[in-house]
Amino acid sequence: MGERNKWLVDTEWLEAHLDSPDVVVVDGSWHMPAEERDPEAEYNAEHIPGSVFFDLDGIADLTTDLPHMLPTSEAFAKAVEQLGISNGKTIIIYDVAGIRTAPRIWWTFRIMGVEDVYILDGGLPKWKAEGRPVTDETTIITKGKFAARFDRGAVCNHAEMLRAIDIPDVEVVDARSNGRWRGTDPEPRPGLSSGRMPGSKNVPFVGLIDESGCLKDTEVMRQQFLDAGVDLSKRIITSCGSGVTAAVLTLALDTIGVKSLGLYDGSWTEWASREDSIIERD
């Protein structure tokens, strides 16, 4: 795949493999509610030829009020089969921002046991900037056959986070902006307090992406975590606003060689809404 990162493919590689029967291209775009954008409508208007749309809010646990929490493995399998995805396929995920929400979809497939899943470096903006093809044609889908193998150990819930903040060998790293993490800027979700989990470190995900929408080089990212005081030898749990951009940190940490990784699925939306959570602010 890519020489720079084992989880990335470049635009040239993808265009050369668009017609491969073993490759499935997935649009994993999603937007914050306040942005008032419809990612599926945008996909219908313009997408990479042959790609399918992954509905982050729809392929989720619909029994909770928390946004886009992981679905059960059975529900996930049924949903991705409808997208034409089968075990053994190579899955390439992109989003309309470059690298923002695609890592969450990448992480979800990884959690469900898929090994050959990758992210298009630079996403749709880089693809279009290079004059590569887009279309509004409906993708013809043949139902797939998918069996999930759920990796429970890589997903953290609220009870585990309450314990984790008191464990010296665990680092919690937050992908939100520094102002939200410090508690000086408001959260985008109405009624939700800003602030941080005790002892957490802050590495805003936007700082890991370069001007072209691509993931930064490995050593640059490593230094950013070190500069934030993150001990890369510890188990690291990533968090963000609702479990989406935390996956950008997970992608970066995996890239630089951190082996023990977890992601807090409910992230700050859950933490700040629970009375038994501890919130620190500047």
Structure description:
There is one protein chain. With 282 residues, the protein is an alpha/beta fold. It has two domains: 8-150, 3-Layer(aba) Sandwich (Oxidized Rhodanese, domain 1); 153-271, Rhodanese-like domain (Oxidized Rhodanese, domain 1). It is 27% helix and 13% strand. It has helices at 11-16, 39-45, 73-81, 102-111, 123-129, 158-164, 178-182, 218-227, 246-255, 267-271, and strands at residues 8-9, 23-27, 52-53, 90-94, 117-120, 155-156, 170-174, 201-202, 235-239, 261-264. A five-stranded parallel sheet has the order 1-5-4-2-3. It has a five-stranded parallel sheet with strand order 6-10-9-7-8. The longest helix has 10 residues, at 102-111. It is globular and about 50 Å long. The termini are far apart. The mean pLDDT is 96.
